[in-house]
Amino acid sequence: MRGVRQIYPFTRPPELDTDKRTRVPVIIVGAGPIGMAMGLDLDLQGIPNIILDDDNKVSIGSRAICWAKRALEVVDRLGCGERMLDKGVTWNLGKVFFGDRKDPVYGFNMLEEEEQQFPGFINLQQYYAEEYLIDEIDKRELTSIRWENEVTAVSQGDEGATLSVSTPEGKYQIDCDYVVAADGARSPLRKMLGFDFGGETFQDHFLIADIKMKAEFPAERWFWFDPPFNRGQSALLHKQPDDVWRLDFQLGWDIDREEELKSEKVSERIHAMLGDDFEFDFEWVSIYTFQCRRMDRFVHDRIIFTGDAAHLVSPFGARGANSGLQDVDNLGWKLALILQGKAPARLLESYNDERIAAAKENILNSTRATDFITPKSEVSRIFRDATLELADEFEFARRFVNSGRLSIPTILDDSTLNTEDHDSFDSKLVPGSPAIDAPVKINGKESWFLKSIGNNFTGVYFARQGANAPEGAAQLEHDDIPVNTLVVSDMDVAGSGLLLDHKGLLKQRLDGQPGTYYLFRPDQHVVARWREFDSQAVRDAVARATMQAH
Question: Mind listing the domains of the chain with CATH numbers?
């Protein structure tokens, strides 16, 4: 196991020393990656918040290791993206093997369009991500973590919520406007409130073995169906930082867990996979089963559920933490506008609707992947194996190979917050799509498009000539919900809010003909786009996106 985990000190809460009740805008329950990201997002929006956690350490073992491009873009906005990228193992390529074949029958690239700040994926142990988020929170004034503060009860009313908290030095109560539940798959908060968590448990077991070894395998995702070292089952190999490797073996349902976890049994499996010459040390070993579940609703008046507390998927496709970070991205700006009195509380219904749609998509993909990896009948197995055989030679069959459809962000094209296209575009960035990155220059310095659009509504205008913003754009900056307009030009001139599209990739990816104007939400999703700028149309789109127009 990786050295001794850092202990984060318990600090006596001020509520234990006064009869006066504290009230904060938001209390977050759970200091995992999702809870801490939520705190940082609210901090950026100017919303004070407290994170409560019953533990005082980061997670044990590697746990979540695969961080998708969109998740990295989210944490970059929160201040941790580059640090995670620097430490993580970058990969874009995946390969699928079948039977005794030495060569892959199928391969894929998770970064279809090159020249973006972040790769398709990085592999990074969850404990590193948590440590980086803690370090970032320590720099902030509006967010704090209270370690060893266990929530034992919660109640809510028209004006807010009250939490009862137990600590090593006593109990207290604290009030807030909203509670964000980020307390994981077993969510004590969800159980306290008696909410359903419906879904399916899959009857299979998988062995995770994180081992430390020197190996020259490439930084790619390798997945095997029916390999000679695990007949009739599947296996997975991933590289992590610090010479740690994730090995994953399908075991089947009827197993002796205690026997399978014995070090000599795990070593036998590893040597069968890698060869007898490999020397390694164990970092973490675990056996897991998995479920696909979700709550019927994520928003319950003053209590909002996120991450695994709201929805749970199988690990195939790395959709757990990645989708949880997209929950955070979706929720933060909406809560902020509501608490600032700039949007009605019903805006939270859009979080409920948009993230349930994403959860349904993730569960569907996870279930399909599970059914392909672990066929439920002999007919399904014959179909699976025939697909793999054909994929070796025929392109059409490769579309059906499913070793875990890997996490990509949901396109919210059915969202009521969108403004429908009325102009023609040759770009896949329809309203509801997350922005795509591209290299730009700002005042002569290399940068990235997504670094330019941050925590507010942002317009992106492709200049007709020179580097002039459209008439009327400056006035939008002074609205109650301001819109800052960035000007995209192919002329290298200095100017605030000017993006030099020096490689032409931003124009290409957004179909940015001269005069085109895109409006992005604070979570970097497209709200609307036009071929001609119209300040009233922009204001109407902002009103719709914040439910002022309903």
Answer: 14-89+114-196+294-346 (3.50.50.60), 200-291 (3.30.9.10), 439-545 (3.40.30.10)
